[in-house]
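We close this part of the discussion by returning to an individual protein. The amino acid sequence and the C-alpha cells for this protein are reproduced below:
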Amino acid sequence: MTDIEIANSVTPKHIREVAERINVKESDLEYYGNQKAKLPIELIEEDKVKKSNLILVTAITPTPPGEGKTTSSIGLNDGLNQIGKKSVVVIREPSLGPVFGMKGGAAGGGWSQVIPMVDINLHFTGDFHAIAMANNLLAALIDNNIQSKSRSLGIDPRTVIWKRCMDMNDRALRNIVAALGGKAGGVPRETGFNITAASEIMAILCLCKSMDDLQKMCGDIYIGDTFEGSPVYAKDLNASGAMAVLLKDAIKPNLVQTLEGNPAIIHGGPFANIAQGTNSILATKMGMSLGGYVVTEAGFAADLGAEKFLNIKCRKAEISPKAVVVVATIRALKYHGGKSLNEITQEDLSALEKGIPNLEKHIEAIQSFGLPVVVSVNTFSSDTDAEKELIYKHCEKLGVPVALSTGWAEGGKGCTDLAQKVVKAAEGNTAKFKPTYELEDSPLTKIEKICKNIYGANGVELSAKAKNQLKRFEDLGYSKLPICMAKTEKSLSDDEKLKGRPTNFEIHIREFEIAAGAGFIIPIAGNMLRMPGLPLTPAAENIKMNNNGDISGLF
C-alpha cells in the first residue's frame, strides 16, 4: 500500500476527541472541518512548559529522498503513547515546493503519518498563503513608495533587498526585473522571489511569542536604504499592522492527529538548508503545555536543523531539549560510504563501515551542546542482520544507545524500544544545552564556531562582496544577532559532492542576507539558492484525481 492508501484506510477521530486527550475544550477549537482545528495561543502555560520533556529528532546527512525523520518523529510519538506517556508530536507544515518537486510531503509515511495527509500536504489551513500575502504586501508597499511623488521616503531602488515569495519551486523567478511598462508600471528594478518557506515572514511567524511580538518583528524588517544611505524599515512604511492582520489566523498552531489517534500539532514550515528549519515557538510551547512529552523535529541533518533549533529557536524561546534522537538509515550510510543510489539496497558491510563516520560526526555535533543522544535506525526491508549488527557495535563503542525503528511498517508498536530508550535518556538529563557561540561574539567568530565545531571545517572564507555586506550589517547594529547558515543539506561541507565525513575543507561564504525582523544574519555558503528549482522529473507529473475526488500519486 502507498502512503496515501494507508492514510485513506484509517477512519480518523473527530478532532474534538483528539483535543479531549490533551484536555483542550471544544470551545477552544477553531474548526477547519472535522479533522483540523486551530488552537488559541492562550493555551500556552509557561509553568507546564518548564515541566515537559522536549525531545528533538534530527538526522544524519540525508540522501535525496530523505531518511524518514518526520516518519520517525511520528512513530516515536505513537510509541511513547503506547508505553503510557502523554506525548504530543509537533512538526512543520509541508511546502508545495517539495510536494510537487522531488522529496515529497512532510506528513510522515507508512503507518507513522499525520492525517488528513492530503490536506496537510496541500493548502492545509492556509498558513502558507497568509505568509506569502503578508510578505508580498510589504513588497507592494515598497514599490508604491518608490513610485510616489508626495509620500516618498527616498528609497534607493538599487538597495532594496526585500523579495516577493511564493510556495513553489520556480527557478525562473529567482532573478527578475519588475515594474516594466512605462511610468504607470512603477520604477523598474532588479529583484526576485524566495520560496515562502525561506521568507523572513515565515521566520517571524515561527520565532514570535505573541501577536504583539509578531507585529513588532514585522516592523523591524530591514528593506534597504535611502539615497542618503539611511536604513529603511517596514515600520517606516507603516506596514506592520496590516501584515499582522493578514497573519492573525496563521499565528495559531494547527491540531490534527496521527494514524493512531494521538494529538499532533503542525505549524510553520521553514526549510533548514536556507532558513531556520523548525516549527514555531508557539507550537512547541503549545505541545509542552499540553503533553508530558513533546517530540519535535528540525529539518535535514544535525548540522542544519538541529544547530539552528538550539542556537536560534531555543535561545529565543528559553527552552531546552531533554534528549536528541539522531535518525540514520543503513542505505544512507552506504551512500556516504561510496555506493550509488542504485546500489544502496544491496548488502555491503565495507561501504557501511566507510559511511558510519557521517553518523559519528552528527553525534559529536549534538554532544557538543551537552545533550544526550539516542540513535534511531529507520529500517528498510533491504537492511540485513549483519548491517544492523555493525551499527549496533559502533554505537556501543561510542557509548550511545541505539534502537531499530520500524514505525513505517508497524506504527507506534515499532517504536516502543526507541521510546523507552528516549525516556531513559530524558529522565537522566537535568542539564540545559550549551550553545555553540555567545551572542556577544563577532558575527565572523560565530560563523567560524559553527563551521569548525558542527561541520568539522578548517575555517571560513568570505568573498569581497560578503565582507562588505557583513560590515554594513555590523554598522547597522546587528552584530549580536544569531547566525542562520544557508548551506547544502547534501554534505557537511558546502560542496554537495563531498559525502561521508569530509576533512580539510573550508566553508566559502559568497554573500550575506539580513533578517532583522526575525533576528538573525544569513551567511550564504557555496551555491545555495533561496528559490529552488524543480527536478528533471517533478513529482507533480504523477499526481492525478478522478471524478470522485480520489487523489493518486501523492506519495
